[in-house]
Hints:
single chain; mainly alpha; Arc Repressor Mutant, subunit A; three-stranded antiparallel beta sheet; 62% helix
Amino acid sequence: MVNNSKKVQVKLMKGLLDLIVLQFLSSKPMHGYQIITKIRKTFGVYFGPSTIYPLLNALEKNGYVESEWNMNNERPRKVYKLTSEGHKLLNFTEDSLNFICRKIGTTGLPKNGLEAKTALRPFLKKIEDPKTLI
């Protein structure tokens, strides 16, 4: 069951990755490696550069994030921050996920930010137990 739980968690994370990235960027601007590290530390799941950077590029292309180069360190970093459209998308996505959670009988996400291990736990438990989906 542990292996199946991890598979379910990774599958959910893939589907919610844009929400998670937007949520992280809503608290402060970050570069890609910071996002990769925060996802790993928060959720225990690794998404590498080949996943995160195309997502950030797509979010930027669609106007949800904007970037600028930070040249103040020894290594230049492209730092991403949420735009007003990104905030709207984040609010809409959170509301949509909360609606889905209510429909399947969970409490949903807290509005004050993703607290990964606790916020998604009821949702994961519902999915891990096939009887709850019938």
